[in-house]
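Data availability excerpt. The first of two example chains:
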Amino acid sequence: MRFSLLLFFTLLLLSACWLGCTKDAVETIHMDTTITNNDPPPYFGVSEVQINNYINRMYIDLIGRAPSQDEILTAHDYLISHDLSAAAKDTLIQQLISTRSYFNVLFSLTSADFINGSDSALIAYQIAVIKLIYHYDSLAGNTAILIFYQYELYRLQKLQDVTDAFMNGSISVNEYFAAFLDNYFYDQLNMGTENFVKAAFGDLLLRSPTQSELFNGVTMVDNNPAFLFQTDGDSKGDFVTIVTTNDEFYEGLVIKAYNQLLLRDATSQELTAGTIAMQVSKDYPAFQKELMKTAEYAGF
Protein backbone atom coordinates (compact mmCIF):
# COMPACT_ATOMS: atom_id res chain seq x y z
CA MET A 1 0.00 0.00 0.00
CA ARG A 2 2.79 2.42 0.96
CA PHE A 3 4.57 1.51 -2.23
CA SER A 4 1.46 2.26 -4.29
CA LEU A 5 0.97 5.68 -2.66
CA LEU A 6 4.64 6.52 -3.20
CA LEU A 7 4.40 5.54 -6.84
CA PHE A 8 1.24 7.58 -7.24
CA PHE A 9 2.76 10.77 -5.81
CA THR A 10 5.93 10.27 -7.84
CA LEU A 11 3.97 10.03 -11.09
CA LEU A 12 1.89 13.06 -10.11
CA LEU A 13 5.04 15.12 -9.50
CA LEU A 14 6.57 14.09 -12.82
CA SER A 15 3.38 15.00 -14.67
CA ALA A 16 3.33 18.45 -13.10
CA CYS A 17 6.96 19.02 -14.10
CA TRP A 18 6.31 17.85 -17.63
CA LEU A 19 3.33 20.15 -18.04
CA GLY A 20 5.26 23.06 -16.62
CA CYS A 21 8.20 22.45 -18.95
CA THR A 22 5.93 22.14 -21.97
CA LYS A 23 4.31 25.47 -21.23
CA ASP A 24 7.69 27.18 -20.89
CA ALA A 25 8.91 25.63 -24.16
CA VAL A 26 5.85 26.83 -26.07
CA GLU A 27 6.23 30.31 -24.71
CA THR A 28 9.94 30.37 -25.54
CA ILE A 29 9.36 29.24 -29.14
CA HIS A 30 6.63 31.85 -29.55
CA MET A 31 8.92 34.61 -28.33
CA ASP A 32 11.85 33.54 -30.52
CA THR A 33 9.79 33.57 -33.74
CA THR A 34 8.30 37.02 -33.22
CA ILE A 35 9.97 39.45 -35.67
CA THR A 36 9.66 43.18 -35.18
CA ASN A 37 9.63 45.83 -37.96
CA ASN A 38 8.48 43.28 -40.52
CA ASP A 39 5.71 45.15 -42.28
CA PRO A 40 4.23 43.28 -45.28
CA PRO A 41 5.28 44.57 -48.73
CA PRO A 42 2.78 46.86 -50.48
CA TYR A 43 0.54 45.96 -53.38
CA PHE A 44 0.19 42.27 -52.77
CA GLY A 45 3.89 41.51 -52.45
CA VAL A 46 5.44 43.87 -55.03
CA SER A 47 8.68 45.19 -53.55
CA GLU A 48 10.41 48.53 -54.09
CA VAL A 49 13.22 46.69 -55.83
CA GLN A 50 10.84 45.08 -58.32
CA ILE A 51 9.25 48.41 -59.18
CA ASN A 52 12.60 50.14 -59.63
CA ASN A 53 13.93 47.25 -61.72
CA TYR A 54 10.90 47.58 -63.99
CA ILE A 55 11.52 51.30 -64.46
CA ASN A 56 15.21 50.69 -65.14
CA ARG A 57 14.50 47.99 -67.69
CA MET A 58 11.89 50.15 -69.40
CA TYR A 59 14.36 53.00 -69.89
CA ILE A 60 17.15 50.79 -71.18
CA ASP A 61 14.95 48.91 -73.66
CA LEU A 62 13.23 51.99 -75.04
CA ILE A 63 15.76 54.83 -74.96
CA GLY A 64 19.04 52.98 -74.49
CA ARG A 65 20.08 54.28 -71.09
CA ALA A 66 19.39 53.83 -67.40
CA PRO A 67 17.11 56.37 -65.71
CA SER A 68 18.51 59.02 -63.40
CA GLN A 69 17.68 58.86 -59.70
CA ASP A 70 15.12 61.63 -60.14
CA GLU A 71 13.51 59.78 -63.04
CA ILE A 72 13.29 56.60 -60.97
CA LEU A 73 11.69 58.46 -58.05
CA THR A 74 9.19 60.24 -60.30
CA ALA A 75 8.18 57.07 -62.14
CA HIS A 76 8.09 55.07 -58.91
CA ASP A 77 5.82 57.57 -57.17
CA TYR A 78 3.54 57.70 -60.20
CA LEU A 79 3.17 53.92 -60.34
CA ILE A 80 2.53 53.70 -56.58
CA SER A 81 -0.04 56.50 -56.63
CA HIS A 82 -1.91 54.66 -59.37
CA ASP A 83 -1.71 51.23 -57.71
CA LEU A 84 0.66 49.84 -60.37
CA SER A 85 -2.21 49.81 -62.84
CA ALA A 86 -1.90 48.94 -66.51
CA ALA A 87 -2.98 52.49 -67.34
CA ALA A 88 -0.11 53.92 -65.27
CA LYS A 89 2.39 51.65 -67.02
CA ASP A 90 0.91 52.69 -70.36
CA THR A 91 1.44 56.36 -69.54
CA LEU A 92 5.08 55.93 -68.53
CA ILE A 93 5.93 53.77 -71.54
CA GLN A 94 4.20 56.17 -73.92
CA GLN A 95 6.19 59.08 -72.51
CA LEU A 96 9.41 57.28 -73.45
CA ILE A 97 8.13 56.14 -76.85
CA SER A 98 7.26 59.75 -77.67
CA THR A 99 10.87 60.89 -77.28
CA ARG A 100 13.49 61.31 -79.97
CA SER A 101 15.70 58.91 -78.04
CA TYR A 102 13.26 56.06 -78.64
CA PHE A 103 13.40 56.53 -82.40
CA ASN A 104 17.18 56.86 -82.32
CA VAL A 105 17.45 53.53 -80.51
CA LEU A 106 15.04 51.92 -82.97
CA PHE A 107 17.20 53.18 -85.82
CA SER A 108 20.35 51.78 -84.20
CA LEU A 109 18.79 48.37 -83.65
CA THR A 110 17.39 48.19 -87.17
CA SER A 111 20.63 49.45 -88.69
CA ALA A 112 22.54 46.75 -86.84
CA ASP A 113 20.22 44.10 -88.29
CA PHE A 114 20.14 45.39 -91.86
CA ILE A 115 23.11 47.59 -92.75
CA ASN A 116 25.89 46.56 -90.39
CA GLY A 117 25.24 49.39 -87.95
CA SER A 118 25.74 52.24 -90.44
CA ASP A 119 24.95 55.46 -88.57
CA SER A 120 23.84 58.94 -89.58
CA ALA A 121 27.43 60.16 -89.94
CA LEU A 122 28.31 57.38 -92.38
CA ILE A 123 25.12 57.98 -94.36
CA ALA A 124 25.91 61.70 -94.59
CA TYR A 125 29.46 60.92 -95.68
CA GLN A 126 28.28 58.58 -98.45
CA ILE A 127 25.82 61.19 -99.68
CA ALA A 128 28.64 63.75 -99.83
CA VAL A 129 30.87 61.35 -101.77
CA ILE A 130 28.20 60.61 -104.37
CA LYS A 131 27.38 64.31 -104.73
CA LEU A 132 31.04 65.04 -105.35
CA ILE A 133 31.31 62.31 -108.01
CA TYR A 134 28.07 63.56 -109.54
CA HIS A 135 29.55 67.07 -109.74
CA TYR A 136 32.75 66.00 -111.46
CA ASP A 137 30.97 63.70 -113.93
CA SER A 138 28.55 66.49 -114.71
CA LEU A 139 31.42 68.87 -115.46
CA ALA A 140 33.09 66.19 -117.61
CA GLY A 141 29.92 65.75 -119.63
CA ASN A 142 29.24 62.17 -118.47
CA THR A 143 25.52 62.83 -118.35
CA ALA A 144 24.41 59.26 -119.07
CA ILE A 145 25.60 58.06 -115.66
CA LEU A 146 24.09 60.91 -113.68
CA ILE A 147 20.75 59.18 -113.39
CA PHE A 148 22.37 56.36 -111.38
CA TYR A 149 23.86 58.87 -108.96
CA GLN A 150 20.46 60.50 -108.58
CA TYR A 151 18.93 57.09 -107.83
CA GLU A 152 21.50 56.36 -105.11
CA LEU A 153 21.12 59.83 -103.60
CA TYR A 154 17.34 59.46 -103.50
CA ARG A 155 17.57 56.15 -101.63
CA LEU A 156 20.24 57.40 -99.22
CA GLN A 157 18.28 60.54 -98.42
CA LYS A 158 15.23 58.44 -97.62
CA LEU A 159 17.38 56.42 -95.24
CA GLN A 160 18.83 59.60 -93.77
CA ASP A 161 15.34 61.00 -93.13
CA VAL A 162 13.72 57.75 -91.96
CA THR A 163 13.90 58.50 -88.24
CA ASP A 164 12.24 61.91 -88.52
CA ALA A 165 9.67 60.59 -90.98
CA PHE A 166 8.68 57.67 -88.77
CA MET A 167 8.63 59.82 -85.65
CA ASN A 168 6.26 62.38 -87.15
CA GLY A 169 4.08 59.71 -88.73
CA SER A 170 4.68 60.66 -92.35
CA ILE A 171 5.73 57.10 -93.22
CA SER A 172 4.33 53.75 -92.12
CA VAL A 173 6.17 50.92 -90.38
CA ASN A 174 6.27 49.22 -93.80
CA GLU A 175 8.02 52.18 -95.41
CA TYR A 176 10.35 52.45 -92.43
CA PHE A 177 11.73 48.95 -92.88
CA ALA A 178 11.69 49.28 -96.68
CA ALA A 179 14.18 52.16 -96.36
CA PHE A 180 16.65 49.84 -94.61
CA LEU A 181 16.24 47.28 -97.36
CA ASP A 182 16.45 49.56 -100.38
CA ASN A 183 19.67 51.55 -100.09
CA TYR A 184 23.33 51.72 -101.11
CA PHE A 185 24.65 50.03 -97.94
CA TYR A 186 22.29 47.04 -98.14
CA ASP A 187 23.26 46.50 -101.77
CA GLN A 188 26.95 46.58 -100.90
CA LEU A 189 26.50 44.04 -98.11
CA ASN A 190 24.37 41.72 -100.28
CA MET A 191 25.81 41.99 -103.75
CA GLY A 192 24.06 40.10 -106.50
CA THR A 193 20.33 39.60 -106.93
CA GLU A 194 20.19 36.17 -105.31
CA ASN A 195 22.06 37.33 -102.22
CA PHE A 196 19.79 40.36 -102.00
CA VAL A 197 16.63 38.25 -102.07
CA LYS A 198 17.97 35.78 -99.50
CA ALA A 199 19.04 38.60 -97.20
CA ALA A 200 15.65 40.31 -97.48
CA PHE A 201 13.86 37.12 -96.44
CA GLY A 202 16.26 36.55 -93.57
CA ASP A 203 16.18 40.10 -92.21
CA LEU A 204 12.45 40.72 -92.59
CA LEU A 205 10.76 37.34 -92.41
CA LEU A 206 13.46 35.64 -90.32
CA ARG A 207 13.66 32.62 -92.61
CA SER A 208 15.17 31.48 -95.89
CA PRO A 209 13.09 31.64 -99.08
CA THR A 210 11.80 28.47 -100.66
CA GLN A 211 13.19 27.57 -104.06
CA SER A 212 10.05 28.94 -105.69
CA GLU A 213 10.22 32.16 -103.68
CA LEU A 214 13.90 32.58 -104.49
CA PHE A 215 13.32 32.06 -108.21
CA ASN A 216 10.40 34.49 -108.34
CA GLY A 217 12.15 37.02 -106.13
CA VAL A 218 15.27 37.04 -108.30
CA THR A 219 13.16 37.27 -111.46
CA MET A 220 11.24 40.25 -110.06
CA VAL A 221 14.31 42.13 -108.79
CA ASP A 222 15.89 41.68 -112.24
CA ASN A 223 12.95 43.62 -113.72
CA ASN A 224 11.00 40.67 -115.09
CA PRO A 225 7.37 39.77 -114.31
CA ALA A 226 6.98 37.34 -111.39
CA PHE A 227 4.50 36.28 -108.70
CA LEU A 228 5.44 36.46 -105.02
CA PHE A 229 3.18 36.15 -101.96
CA GLN A 230 0.19 36.09 -104.31
CA THR A 231 1.20 39.46 -105.74
CA ASP A 232 2.51 40.40 -109.18
CA GLY A 233 5.62 42.50 -109.65
CA ASP A 234 8.34 43.25 -112.16
CA SER A 235 10.94 45.43 -110.41
CA LYS A 236 13.14 45.73 -107.35
CA GLY A 237 10.76 48.33 -105.99
CA ASP A 238 7.86 45.91 -106.33
CA PHE A 239 9.83 43.23 -104.52
CA VAL A 240 10.65 45.55 -101.62
CA THR A 241 7.01 46.61 -101.31
CA ILE A 242 5.77 43.01 -101.35
CA VAL A 243 8.16 41.70 -98.71
CA THR A 244 7.42 44.64 -96.39
CA THR A 245 3.62 44.40 -96.60
CA ASN A 246 2.78 40.68 -96.55
CA ASP A 247 1.50 38.76 -93.51
CA GLU A 248 4.91 37.29 -92.72
CA PHE A 249 6.40 40.76 -92.43
CA TYR A 250 4.11 41.51 -89.48
CA GLU A 251 4.87 38.09 -88.03
CA GLY A 252 8.56 38.95 -88.20
CA LEU A 253 7.94 42.14 -86.20
CA VAL A 254 6.13 40.14 -83.52
CA ILE A 255 9.04 37.70 -83.28
CA LYS A 256 11.51 40.59 -82.98
CA ALA A 257 9.49 42.24 -80.21
CA TYR A 258 9.19 39.06 -78.14
CA ASN A 259 12.89 38.29 -78.50
CA GLN A 260 13.98 41.82 -77.63
CA LEU A 261 11.61 42.53 -74.73
CA LEU A 262 10.68 39.16 -73.22
CA LEU A 263 13.89 37.39 -74.27
CA ARG A 264 12.01 34.40 -75.63
CA ASP A 265 10.15 33.19 -78.69
CA ALA A 266 6.43 33.80 -78.89
CA THR A 267 4.19 30.77 -78.53
CA SER A 268 2.10 29.80 -81.55
CA GLN A 269 -0.96 31.40 -79.95
CA GLU A 270 0.95 34.59 -79.13
CA LEU A 271 2.40 34.71 -82.63
CA THR A 272 -1.01 34.37 -84.25
CA ALA A 273 -2.65 36.97 -82.02
CA GLY A 274 0.29 39.37 -82.30
CA THR A 275 0.44 39.09 -86.10
CA ILE A 276 -3.26 39.87 -86.40
CA ALA A 277 -2.85 42.85 -84.06
CA MET A 278 0.08 44.17 -86.11
CA GLN A 279 -1.79 43.71 -89.37
CA VAL A 280 -4.66 45.79 -88.05
CA SER A 281 -2.76 48.55 -86.24
CA LYS A 282 0.52 48.62 -88.16
CA ASP A 283 1.83 50.26 -84.99
CA TYR A 284 5.06 48.62 -83.87
CA PRO A 285 5.71 50.94 -80.88
CA ALA A 286 2.18 50.24 -79.60
CA PHE A 287 2.79 46.50 -79.84
CA GLN A 288 6.02 46.87 -77.87
CA LYS A 289 4.09 48.83 -75.25
CA GLU A 290 1.54 46.04 -74.81
CA LEU A 291 4.32 43.54 -74.12
CA MET A 292 5.96 45.89 -71.63
CA LYS A 293 2.74 46.25 -69.66
CA THR A 294 2.57 42.51 -68.98
CA ALA A 295 3.41 40.95 -65.63
CA GLU A 296 6.05 38.84 -67.40
CA TYR A 297 7.98 41.91 -68.50
CA ALA A 298 7.39 43.96 -65.35
CA GLY A 299 8.25 41.12 -63.00
CA PHE A 300 5.16 41.68 -60.85
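And the second chain:
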Amino acid sequence: MSRVLPAIGPRRGLALGALAGLLLAAVAQWRIEARPVAHADIHPLLYLPSGKYLKIATLGFDGLAADVLYLWSIQYYGNYQIADRYRYLEKIYGEVISELDPRYLDPYLIGSLIMTSEARDPEMALRLLDKGIARNPGVWILAFEAGFICYDTLRDYVRAARYFDTALQAPDVQPQVHRLYASMYEKAGDKRTSLKEWSEIYDTAGDDYVRTVAWNHVHDLRVEVDLADLKESVRAFTASVGRPPRRLREMEQHGLAGALPRDPEDREYAYDPATGAVSYRGGLILAR
Protein backbone atom coordinates (compact mmCIF):
# COMPACT_ATOMS: atom_id res chain seq x y z
CA MET A 1 0.00 0.00 0.00
CA SER A 2 1.63 3.24 -1.10
CA ARG A 3 2.23 6.05 1.36
CA VAL A 4 2.33 9.80 0.68
CA LEU A 5 4.37 11.46 3.43
CA PRO A 6 3.75 15.06 4.52
CA ALA A 7 6.45 17.71 4.33
CA ILE A 8 8.96 17.56 7.16
CA GLY A 9 9.01 20.50 9.56
CA PRO A 10 10.14 20.82 13.19
CA ARG A 11 7.15 18.87 14.49
CA ARG A 12 7.51 16.31 11.71
CA GLY A 13 11.15 15.86 12.61
CA LEU A 14 10.09 15.23 16.17
CA ALA A 15 7.60 12.67 14.97
CA LEU A 16 10.23 10.93 12.86
CA GLY A 17 12.49 10.85 15.88
CA ALA A 18 9.70 9.28 17.88
CA LEU A 19 9.17 6.71 15.16
CA ALA A 20 12.87 5.91 15.06
CA GLY A 21 12.74 5.38 18.79
CA LEU A 22 9.69 3.18 18.37
CA LEU A 23 11.53 1.09 15.80
CA LEU A 24 14.55 0.73 18.06
CA ALA A 25 12.30 -0.22 20.93
CA ALA A 26 10.63 -2.82 18.73
CA VAL A 27 13.98 -4.30 17.75
CA ALA A 28 15.09 -4.32 21.37
CA GLN A 29 11.79 -5.88 22.34
CA TRP A 30 12.31 -8.68 19.85
CA ARG A 31 15.78 -9.39 21.24
CA ILE A 32 14.56 -9.29 24.82
CA GLU A 33 11.73 -11.72 24.08
CA ALA A 34 14.27 -14.36 23.04
CA ARG A 35 15.77 -14.30 26.55
CA PRO A 36 14.36 -15.47 29.87
CA VAL A 37 12.48 -12.70 31.68
CA ALA A 38 12.88 -12.16 35.41
CA HIS A 39 9.21 -11.38 35.87
CA ALA A 40 7.63 -13.85 33.48
CA ASP A 41 4.12 -12.83 34.53
CA ILE A 42 4.59 -9.30 33.11
CA HIS A 43 4.69 -9.35 29.32
CA PRO A 44 6.57 -6.39 27.73
CA LEU A 45 3.94 -6.03 24.98
CA LEU A 46 1.43 -5.13 27.67
CA TYR A 47 3.03 -1.67 27.80
CA LEU A 48 2.73 -0.97 24.07
CA PRO A 49 0.48 2.13 23.76
CA SER A 50 -2.86 1.83 22.01
CA GLY A 51 -3.15 2.79 18.37
CA LYS A 52 -5.36 5.76 19.25
CA TYR A 53 -2.64 7.18 21.49
CA LEU A 54 0.13 6.49 18.97
CA LYS A 55 -1.95 8.13 16.22
CA ILE A 56 -1.78 11.39 18.17
CA ALA A 57 1.85 10.94 19.23
CA THR A 58 3.14 10.37 15.68
CA LEU A 59 1.93 13.84 14.55
CA GLY A 60 0.62 12.81 11.16
CA PHE A 61 2.98 9.91 10.56
CA ASP A 62 0.45 7.31 11.73
CA GLY A 63 0.69 5.48 8.39
CA LEU A 64 4.45 5.17 8.71
CA ALA A 65 4.09 4.04 12.32
CA ALA A 66 1.63 1.37 11.17
CA ASP A 67 4.17 0.23 8.57
CA VAL A 68 6.93 0.01 11.19
CA LEU A 69 4.81 -1.97 13.62
CA TYR A 70 3.45 -4.23 10.90
CA LEU A 71 6.94 -5.14 9.66
CA TRP A 72 8.08 -5.68 13.23
CA SER A 73 5.05 -7.91 13.92
CA ILE A 74 5.90 -10.23 11.04
CA GLN A 75 9.40 -10.70 12.43
CA TYR A 76 8.13 -11.06 15.99
CA TYR A 77 5.44 -13.66 15.24
CA GLY A 78 7.84 -15.55 13.01
CA ASN A 79 10.20 -16.10 15.95
CA TYR A 80 9.24 -19.55 17.23
CA GLN A 81 11.65 -19.21 20.17
CA ILE A 82 9.15 -16.90 21.87
CA ALA A 83 6.86 -19.40 23.56
CA ASP A 84 4.04 -16.99 24.43
CA ARG A 85 4.23 -14.77 21.34
CA TYR A 86 0.47 -15.04 20.71
CA ARG A 87 -0.46 -13.69 24.15
CA TYR A 88 -1.09 -10.14 22.89
CA LEU A 89 -1.72 -11.01 19.25
CA GLU A 90 -5.17 -9.42 19.14
CA LYS A 91 -3.89 -6.26 20.80
CA ILE A 92 -1.09 -5.78 18.24
CA TYR A 93 -3.31 -6.10 15.17
CA GLY A 94 -6.74 -5.21 16.52
CA GLU A 95 -5.91 -2.34 18.90
CA VAL A 96 -2.63 -0.90 17.68
CA ILE A 97 -1.87 -1.31 13.97
CA SER A 98 -5.48 -1.19 12.75
CA GLU A 99 -6.15 1.86 14.91
CA LEU A 100 -3.10 3.66 13.52
CA ASP A 101 -4.22 3.07 9.94
CA PRO A 102 -7.72 1.54 9.63
CA ARG A 103 -7.48 1.38 5.82
CA TYR A 104 -4.18 -0.52 5.73
CA LEU A 105 -5.35 -3.92 4.44
CA ASP A 106 -2.23 -6.08 4.84
CA PRO A 107 -2.33 -6.22 8.67
CA TYR A 108 -5.94 -7.45 8.59
CA LEU A 109 -5.05 -10.19 6.11
CA ILE A 110 -1.74 -11.27 7.63
CA GLY A 111 -2.99 -10.83 11.19
CA SER A 112 -6.02 -13.06 10.53
CA LEU A 113 -3.76 -15.63 8.87
CA ILE A 114 -1.50 -15.77 11.94
CA MET A 115 -4.51 -15.97 14.23
CA THR A 116 -6.03 -18.86 12.27
CA SER A 117 -3.03 -20.89 11.10
CA GLU A 118 -0.57 -20.27 13.94
CA ALA A 119 -2.54 -19.30 17.05
CA ARG A 120 -5.44 -21.61 16.08
CA ASP A 121 -8.02 -19.02 17.05
CA PRO A 122 -10.33 -18.43 14.05
CA GLU A 123 -12.82 -16.43 16.10
CA MET A 124 -10.08 -13.93 16.92
CA ALA A 125 -9.30 -13.71 13.21
CA LEU A 126 -12.96 -13.06 12.42
CA ARG A 127 -13.09 -10.24 14.98
CA LEU A 128 -10.11 -8.60 13.28
CA LEU A 129 -11.61 -9.06 9.82
CA ASP A 130 -14.98 -7.74 11.00
CA LYS A 131 -13.20 -4.59 12.09
CA GLY A 132 -11.52 -4.30 8.71
CA ILE A 133 -14.80 -4.90 6.86
CA ALA A 134 -16.55 -2.18 8.86
CA ARG A 135 -13.77 0.33 8.17
CA ASN A 136 -13.25 -0.60 4.52
CA PRO A 137 -16.70 -0.96 2.95
CA GLY A 138 -16.54 -2.00 -0.68
CA VAL A 139 -13.29 -3.99 -0.26
CA TRP A 140 -14.23 -7.57 -1.14
CA ILE A 141 -11.07 -9.38 -0.03
CA LEU A 142 -11.63 -8.93 3.72
CA ALA A 143 -15.15 -10.41 3.65
CA PHE A 144 -13.90 -13.15 1.34
CA GLU A 145 -11.15 -14.12 3.79
CA ALA A 146 -13.65 -14.17 6.66
CA GLY A 147 -15.98 -16.35 4.62
CA PHE A 148 -13.18 -18.73 3.75
CA ILE A 149 -12.26 -19.12 7.44
CA CYS A 150 -15.88 -20.00 8.22
CA TYR A 151 -15.95 -22.45 5.31
CA ASP A 152 -12.55 -24.10 5.55
CA THR A 153 -11.79 -23.96 9.29
CA LEU A 154 -15.11 -23.68 11.14
CA ARG A 155 -17.29 -25.56 8.62
CA ASP A 156 -19.96 -22.97 9.36
CA TYR A 157 -21.47 -22.70 5.89
CA VAL A 158 -24.35 -20.38 6.76
CA ARG A 159 -21.97 -17.90 8.33
CA ALA A 160 -19.59 -18.27 5.39
CA ALA A 161 -22.44 -17.49 2.98
CA ARG A 162 -23.15 -14.23 4.83
CA TYR A 163 -19.53 -13.12 4.46
CA PHE A 164 -19.43 -14.12 0.78
CA ASP A 165 -22.65 -12.19 0.25
CA THR A 166 -20.96 -9.12 1.76
CA ALA A 167 -18.00 -9.61 -0.58
CA LEU A 168 -20.37 -9.82 -3.55
CA GLN A 169 -21.55 -6.28 -2.88
CA ALA A 170 -18.12 -4.89 -3.83
CA PRO A 171 -17.90 -3.57 -7.41
CA ASP A 172 -14.63 -5.34 -8.25
CA VAL A 173 -15.34 -8.71 -6.60
CA GLN A 174 -13.82 -11.75 -8.29
CA PRO A 175 -16.30 -14.12 -10.05
CA GLN A 176 -15.25 -17.17 -8.01
CA VAL A 177 -16.77 -15.59 -4.90
CA HIS A 178 -20.26 -16.05 -6.37
CA ARG A 179 -19.54 -19.74 -6.95
CA LEU A 180 -18.38 -20.17 -3.34
CA TYR A 181 -21.48 -18.31 -2.17
CA ALA A 182 -23.74 -20.71 -4.07
CA SER A 183 -21.82 -23.73 -2.75
CA MET A 184 -22.25 -22.65 0.87
CA TYR A 185 -26.04 -22.94 0.66
CA GLU A 186 -25.68 -26.36 -0.93
CA LYS A 187 -23.40 -27.52 1.90
CA ALA A 188 -25.75 -26.00 4.48
CA GLY A 189 -28.66 -28.00 3.03
CA ASP A 190 -30.52 -25.07 1.46
CA LYS A 191 -30.84 -26.64 -1.99
CA ARG A 192 -33.36 -24.13 -3.32
CA THR A 193 -31.24 -21.07 -2.64
CA SER A 194 -28.18 -22.85 -3.99
CA LEU A 195 -30.10 -23.78 -7.16
CA LYS A 196 -31.16 -20.16 -7.59
CA GLU A 197 -27.58 -18.90 -7.25
CA TRP A 198 -26.06 -21.55 -9.52
CA SER A 199 -28.75 -20.86 -12.12
CA GLU A 200 -27.80 -17.19 -12.09
CA ILE A 201 -24.13 -18.11 -12.50
CA TYR A 202 -25.05 -20.36 -15.43
CA ASP A 203 -27.14 -17.65 -17.11
CA THR A 204 -24.40 -15.00 -16.75
CA ALA A 205 -21.30 -17.15 -17.28
CA GLY A 206 -18.73 -15.52 -19.52
CA ASP A 207 -16.84 -18.68 -20.51
CA ASP A 208 -17.57 -22.32 -21.26
CA TYR A 209 -15.73 -23.69 -18.22
CA VAL A 210 -17.78 -21.68 -15.72
CA ARG A 211 -20.97 -22.49 -17.62
CA THR A 212 -20.17 -26.21 -17.47
CA VAL A 213 -19.39 -26.11 -13.75
CA ALA A 214 -22.57 -24.16 -13.07
CA TRP A 215 -24.69 -26.54 -15.16
CA ASN A 216 -23.40 -29.58 -13.26
CA HIS A 217 -24.62 -28.01 -10.02
CA VAL A 218 -27.89 -26.82 -11.57
CA HIS A 219 -28.56 -30.31 -12.95
CA ASP A 220 -28.09 -32.14 -9.65
CA LEU A 221 -29.77 -29.51 -7.50
CA ARG A 222 -32.77 -29.36 -9.79
CA VAL A 223 -33.20 -33.13 -9.49
CA GLU A 224 -32.92 -32.98 -5.70
CA VAL A 225 -35.41 -30.12 -5.39
CA ASP A 226 -37.88 -31.71 -7.80
CA LEU A 227 -37.76 -35.05 -6.01
CA ALA A 228 -38.28 -33.36 -2.63
CA ASP A 229 -41.33 -31.51 -3.99
CA LEU A 230 -42.81 -34.62 -5.61
CA LYS A 231 -42.30 -36.73 -2.49
CA GLU A 232 -44.04 -34.06 -0.40
CA SER A 233 -46.95 -33.97 -2.87
CA VAL A 234 -47.26 -37.76 -2.78
CA ARG A 235 -47.26 -37.65 1.02
CA ALA A 236 -49.98 -34.96 1.06
CA PHE A 237 -52.09 -36.91 -1.46
CA THR A 238 -51.78 -40.13 0.53
CA ALA A 239 -52.78 -38.36 3.75
CA SER A 240 -55.79 -36.74 2.03
CA VAL A 241 -57.09 -39.64 -0.10
CA GLY A 242 -55.94 -42.58 1.99
CA ARG A 243 -53.78 -44.16 -0.69
CA PRO A 244 -50.83 -43.20 -2.88
CA PRO A 245 -51.72 -41.74 -6.29
CA ARG A 246 -52.03 -44.29 -9.11
CA ARG A 247 -49.93 -42.00 -11.25
CA LEU A 248 -48.31 -38.65 -10.61
CA ARG A 249 -50.79 -36.72 -12.74
CA GLU A 250 -53.57 -37.82 -10.41
CA MET A 251 -52.19 -35.31 -7.91
CA GLU A 252 -52.85 -32.49 -10.39
CA GLN A 253 -56.42 -33.66 -10.84
CA HIS A 254 -57.02 -33.49 -7.09
CA GLY A 255 -55.40 -30.04 -6.88
CA LEU A 256 -52.68 -31.32 -4.56
CA ALA A 257 -49.81 -30.42 -6.88
CA GLY A 258 -49.03 -27.72 -9.39
CA ALA A 259 -47.54 -28.43 -12.79
CA LEU A 260 -45.45 -31.55 -12.43
CA PRO A 261 -41.73 -30.88 -12.89
CA ARG A 262 -39.77 -32.65 -15.59
CA ASP A 263 -36.19 -33.75 -15.09
CA PRO A 264 -33.23 -31.92 -16.67
CA GLU A 265 -33.48 -34.23 -19.69
CA ASP A 266 -37.15 -33.20 -20.11
CA ARG A 267 -38.54 -36.56 -18.99
CA GLU A 268 -41.14 -37.42 -16.38
CA TYR A 269 -39.74 -38.59 -13.07
CA ALA A 270 -40.17 -42.30 -12.39
CA TYR A 271 -42.97 -43.29 -10.03
CA ASP A 272 -43.90 -46.58 -8.35
CA PRO A 273 -47.62 -46.52 -7.36
CA ALA A 274 -47.20 -49.61 -5.18
CA THR A 275 -44.82 -47.86 -2.82
CA GLY A 276 -45.36 -44.20 -3.66
CA ALA A 277 -41.63 -43.85 -4.38
CA VAL A 278 -40.47 -41.15 -6.80
CA SER A 279 -37.07 -41.36 -8.46
CA TYR A 280 -34.86 -39.91 -11.17
CA ARG A 281 -34.25 -42.04 -14.27
CA GLY A 282 -30.70 -40.82 -14.76
CA GLY A 283 -27.67 -40.24 -12.54
CA LEU A 284 -26.34 -37.21 -10.73
CA ILE A 285 -23.37 -35.65 -12.49
CA LEU A 286 -21.36 -34.62 -9.42
CA ALA A 287 -21.83 -38.02 -7.78
CA ARG A 288 -20.18 -39.90 -10.64
